[in-house]
Amino acid sequence: MLLSIEDLRKSYLGPEGPVPVLRGVTLSLQAGETLALTGESGSGKSTLLHLVAGLDAADGGHVLLDGQEVTRLDDSGRARLRRSAVGIVFQQFNLIPSLDVAANIAFQARLNDTPEPRALSRLAGALGLEPHLRKYPEQLSGGQQQRVAIARALAARPKLILADEPTGNLDEATADEVMEQFLALVAETGAALLMVTHSPRLAARLGRQAHLSQGRLL
Ligand SMILES: Nc1ncnc2c1ncn2[C@@H]1O[C@H](COP(=O)(O)OP(=O)(O)OP(=O)(O)O)[C@@H](O)[C@H]1O
């Protein structure tokens, strides 16, 4: 199993004490599987993704990713696992403004010491980014920026891609086009995908669906 989440719990401190967001979430994902995570706004979808990525700490439960217990790693261990096993695509593209497109795409692969120039240029080609490689993020449209973020996530050849509404900031036509390319590349690389989406239409395109409600998965 690539990812096993067991009885995961997380509360945030509100003005009147802790507010539970995840009340015991259990979920597993095999290598190469794709799963859409749906749920109302505020139901904890992003929180769940952040815990899996080790970007935040859980209050209880387990996240076993690629054989490692994320909840027991220290900060540097979580950062290492995130770099080597996980690719993340957020709704806000989170590109590095001071790096050009080529350097942004190579960024995570470089941190991992796994940049393969041929693979990087193939990804740039598949996403239509070749004409933009020397541009900086601010010179790109939203759709182009998200393509760069997708290329960056895939370039490090992660076993798991975590995507949080990856086309949520794009107009419908661009969103459809970017999503097509994204799903095709995920399938091609054989990565597993855990993707948050509000769209039932998009969710239906993934292998499995899970719905987060009242802090639990249905
Ligand atoms: N750092 C934080 N501190 C306090 N409360 C937080 C924090 N992050 C999230 N929350 C709260 O936890 C709940 C779940 O937030 P989360 O962002 O995980 O929901 P979501 O399902 O991703 O929502 P959306 O679909 O609107 O993006 C919300 O009520 C939110 O206000």
UniProtKB/TrEMBL annotation:
Positions of the ABC transporter domain: 3-218
The keyword Transferase is assigned to this record: no
Swiss-Prot/TrEMBL keywords: ATP-binding, Nucleotide-binding, Transport
Membrane found in the keyword field: no
Record-linked SMART domains: AAA
PROSITE patterns: ABC_TRANSPORTER_1, ABC_TRANSPORTER_2
Molecular functions (GO terms): ATP binding
Superkingdom assignment: Bacteria
Record CDD domains: ABC_MJ0796_LolCDE_FtsE
Family assignment from sequence similarity: Belongs to the ABC transporter superfamily.
PANTHER family: IMPORT ATP-BINDING PROTEIN, TRANSPORTER, PUTATIVE-RELATED
Name recorded for this polypeptide: ABC transporter ATP-binding protein
